[in-house]
Amino acid sequence: MMSETTGNMDTPDMYDRLRLLKQYHHIAIVGLSADPYRPSHFVAIYLQAEGYDIIPINPRYAGKTILGKPVYASLAEAKAAGEQIEIVDIFRKAEDTPQFVAEAVQVGAKVLWLQLGVRNEETGKQAREAGLIFVQDRCVKMEHARFFGGLHTIGLNTGVILSRKL
């Protein structure tokens, strides 16, 4: 796997991120909010619309549903309920991310992904040592949209390319 250097840490290059998004379709979203104006919620809507299976993880909403999916308190609880988890997408503060490495490995995840603006070198080191692919400071939705033509003001592919304003 190739990598791009970001600070002191390597992250998979764009071709590998494309491969990850084509290969894995079960994404646990840690910190998914029920508030439709929060970035995590919009990412989940987008991923569902693109055919991904989202698994909401948020202890605050455990036992409820978000976007028609049951919300779990933890990755382990989701796995115990029969959910398949391939990518763990984390919407949490950088200092809160190391705790998810061992749990991601335990549930069989392949990728630990820290959202745009979230960077933690220690989490990356632990994740790689545990055999996980580690991506940080990237948005899953934005990466998908960039690769699959979904970049637009509202996140949808209009199919129209113009060089002038409408």
From TrEMBL:
Lineage: Bacteria, Bacillati, Chloroflexota, Ktedonobacteria, Ktedonobacterales
Domain CoA-binding, first and last residues per copy: 20-118
Source organism of the structure: Dictyobacter vulcani
Pfam family, one: CoA_binding_2
Protein name stated in the entry: CoA-binding protein
SUPFAM superfamilies (alphabetical): NAD(P)-binding Rossmann-fold domains
